[in-house]
Amino acid sequence: MDWARLLNTDTYDKKPEQAERPSYVIGADRITFSAPFRRLANKTQVHPLYDNDHLRHRLIHSEEVASVGRSIGMQVGVWLANETLIPCEDAHKVAGVVQAACLAHDVGNPPFGHSGEEAIGKWCSEKLRGCSPAFRGIAGDRWQEFEEFEGNAQGFRILTRLEMYRNEGGMCLPNAVLGAFMKYPMGAETSKRFNDKHDDPYVGAKKFGFFEAERGYFIQAAQAMGLIEAQGLDGQSWWRRHPLVYLVEAADDICYNIVDLEDGYSAGDLSFKAVEELLSAIALPPSRNQSDYTEYEKIGYLRARAIGGAIKACVEAFIANHDSILDGSFSDSLIGVSGKAKAFKEIKDLANSQLFTAPRKTRLEVKGRNVIRKVLDGLCPVYEELARRNWQQDELPDYERQLINAVQLDLRGVDDAYSALHSLTDFVSGMTDRYAVQVSDMLSG
């Protein structure tokens, strides 16, 4: 791949670049001011909300990832310019593109975190396999989109279709931002067949990154950036990752690993000693005397130094693996090949054994699963009635009309089973944790 094309900042609506306000800055602003981004403030990150005001939710997490991503992008951009791989004036562009993609990286996540994804997927699978009258017409090669519901693909759908200029490119983000956002540049069926055949698949094939409804948007961006194209076992194209995906992914890895430790300490799930030892293994050498610091302050200071150390390690890993990243053969994470890989593995092991199994989190996941199922069960009759009436909304019975008005259900463009199920998952995945509970209570009486 070629950096001159990879940093393509043309947009779907083909508006000319503004010298005083580059398209990636406009894109970051559009993401920041969007409703899906605001809703992240009431979506679970790891720890249940409201137990402690200092714990992160997904909006804070996204802002922190964007901050770390910008720092990584700055250093990589300077290195690329020094190596004459990009013009000096484009060094800042790398940081801006990565920052915008980082802001958007969780925008498609449903309420209650990954347990919400699983709940939506299992419900959809039951309906598809049970021949629900509302969704009976969906082709089998599109079931995977719903049975393994994927927040990354939902995020791409929001960015390119649902938000702002609906069905006309969405936020019309620059191609490079869409490329940096796309961790899994393939459709659902391609990803499934890829994983069925390979025990250790390409890192960009572990999940899927777009629904078939948005394939055209990604094709246009991928061709403009010159991403490496391949053919899947289902006959559909897929692509090697954009190199900046690795920087976005690294920023996310750094934040959720390191910050989960700090939040785990704040929530009382992890001891000071355990967190101090793990962060010290990553942190840059201390530059201040901490003798007067409280334990809470020491953890905050170590977290900051650890983020600095992790950024340094990831930049070094990107530089060391630049050639294989550019030719599409690199299939790992920057954290995984960095000098801090062992320390991060120890953090993940501790999180798996003590954080993700904490009783408060388990209770949240159980409640969240049941809340989401109640919402889906309660709204499904609207789509069943639509299907019976050949998708004519003006023929719906009174109760279904009331239900649509009560939750402001968006039925624009619903004219077949496929668009119907997307409409339902658009609505439910867009909910905040709190709103999902309110709707669940209303629907269950």
Kindly describe this structure:
By secondary structure, the chain is mainly α. It folds into three domains: 3-239, Hypothetical protein af1432; 250-355, putative deoxyguanosinetriphosphate triphosphohydrolase like domain (putative deoxyguanosinetriphosphate triphosphohydrolase fold); 359-440, no CATH class. 60% of the residues lie in helices and 1% in strands. Strands 1-2 form a two-stranded antiparallel sheet. The longest helix has 30 residues, at 359-388. The protein is globular and about 70 Å long. The model has no long low-confidence stretch (mean pLDDT 93).
Rounded Rg: 22 Å
Major pleated sheet: 2 strands, antiparallel
What best-fitting shape do the alpha-carbon axes yield? globular
Report the CATH architecture of the largest domain: Orthogonal Bundle
Task: Please count the beta strands (DSSP E, at least 2 residues each).
Answer: 2
Oligomer: single chain
Please report the number of helical segments. 21
Helix content: 55-70%
Mean pLDDT across every amino acid position: 93
Q: How many distinct folded domains?
A: 3
CATH top level of the largest domain?
Answer: Mainly Alpha
The CATH superfamily title of the largest domain? Hypothetical protein af1432
Low-confidence parts, pLDDT < 50 over ≥5 residues? none
Order of strands, main sheet, comes to 1-2
